[in-house]
Structure formats: C-alpha cells, structure tokens
Specification:
The chain is mainly alpha-helical and 251 residues long. 47% of the residues lie in helices and 8% in strands. It is globular, with a radius of gyration of 17 Å. It binds fe (ii) ion (FE2).
C-alpha cells in the first residue's frame, strides 16, 4: 500500500475496512493489516479516526442555546486543536505509523508515553464529540439501536438516567460514554481525564458510540458550576443517526 498523505485519503482507504477487522483491531491487531485482502467495501469508515483535526461540520453558534458559540469556538480552536498539535508531536517522537487509524494506538496505549495517552485520547474524544452532535439533533434513537438500548438498560429512560449519573458523578475532568462491550451489549460508564474505553489501560472498555465531555472547559462559560444542566441540554444536540451508524458498524 502506498503511503497516504492526508486524513481524507486515509478515510477513503479505511472505507474498505470491514466490521470484523475493526473488532480484531480492538483486541490489539492492526486494523489495516487485519483488513488487507479482507475488505468488504461497506463504504463506512465511521469507527476509524485520523490523526488530524476534522473541520467542524457546523458553525460554532449552531448548537445554541444548548452549547454557546464562544464555548464551541474556544473548545474546538484552542482545546481540541491543542490535543491534535501535541498528538502530532508525540507520534513523531514515538515513531507511530499514522497510516494506521488512531484506534490502533489507543488499543495499545500502555506502550506509549503519558504525552501520547493524554493527547491521543484528547484528540479521539473530541473528534467523536463533534461528530455525534448536530444542529438538527435531539429526539430518540430508533431501530436496532433503540432495541439494544431497551434490552441492555430496560428502557430509554433508564439508559438516560444511567448516562446522566455517570456524567454527573465523574469526579473532576473526564468523559461519560455509551459503548458496545465485548459481549456486544451496550454499557454506560466514565473515564478520567482524556482516557477512553478503547484504551488498554482503561477499567471501562468498549467501542464508544457516543460520549460527553464533562471537563469544565466544555460548559463553564454558559453553565458555570451547573454541570447537570449542561448534561440535560446535551440530549437536544445529539445526532442519533450517526450514533446508530456507529452501533451498526460496532456490532
Ligand atoms: Fe474538551
């Protein structure tokens, strides 16, 4: 395979990554090497993340009043951009093959530096965060994802309660997640700092379908200390279509 020059071409290549090969990637085998010669060409690379920041698909103000414009601008252009920049340095210092998806690094993060852990996690988490939100968000999950939520949590309301509890009770900075676990069931949990459930060092593991950033930088300008209000508003901007696609790919 010739070398790939940017995130788009990498994503195009990854569009041939099969569901099965991604699952293999999660348990430590390289995603790309696992899929070579085994591509199903399903046209979706939704679970693969590049090492560079993806342009935001909507305006900074598009998620108002749920998330304010200045918070979005600072969050994307300062915080998230910082993780991407520091990740770029770390991959150079630690000779990471950036032709592979970022998920490969996360699955073996124990082999890398703290700088890699913080910034690979920070970059992955924010790339996911921007993608699972939309100005047309809100509503309820449908189809197979709705059925999985009901079977895993009992009801949608029970899931919401568990997720909100995970987000509210994450002490200090971190993230709360909805994941597909190794048993293919859905689970809710949280991770500290910029860790995430793909990391081999994480106590809570799975393939993230969606996550909420509960660092104060994600909400403090608008909500100050009222983290629960920010968490409640998050449902209004959640793109269940994207999350359903992630679920389909993950299982
Ligand atoms: Fe953040």
């Amino acid at each position: 395979m010739k070398s790939l020059e940017n995130g788009l071409s990498r994503r195009e290549f990854l569009s041939n990554t099969s569901k099965a090969s991604f699952a293999v990637g999660l348990v430590g085998t390289g995603i790309l090497s696992a899929c070579s010669g085994d591509a199903k060409g399903d046209g979706k690379a939704i679970l693969a993340t590049s090492f560079t920041q993806t342009p935001l698909a909507y305006d900074f103000s598009a998620l108002e009043p749920n998330i304010d414009s200045l918070t979005m601008e600072i969050h994307y252009t300062k915080h998230a951009a910082g993780y991407a920049k520091n990740l770029s340095e770390a991959v150079g210092e630690e000779s990471v093959d950036t032709n592979k998806p970022l998920e490969d690094v996360l699955a073996g993060i124990s082999k890398y530096s703290t700088k890699m852990r913080n910034n690979a996690g920070g970059h992955y988490n924010h790339e996911l965060f921007w993608k699972i939100m939309s100005p047309q968000g809100g509503g309820m999950p449908e189809g197979a994802l709705a059925e999985a939520i009901n079977s895993s949590f009992g009801s949608y309301d029970a899931f919401v309660e568990q997720f909100e509890t995970a987000a509210k009770t994450r002490f200090g900075s971190g993230w709360a997640w909805l994941v597909v676990g190794e048993d293919k069931k859905l689970a809710v949990g949280s991770t500290p700092n910029q860790d995430n459930p793909l990391m081999d060092i994480s106590d809570f593991k799975g393939i993230p379908l969606m996550g909420i950033d509960v660092w104060e930088h994600a909400y403090y300008l608008n909500y100050q200390n009222r983290r629960p209000e920010y968490i409640s508003a998050f449902w209004n901007v959640l793109d269940w279509g994207i999350i359903s696609q992630r679920y389909s790919q993950a299982v």
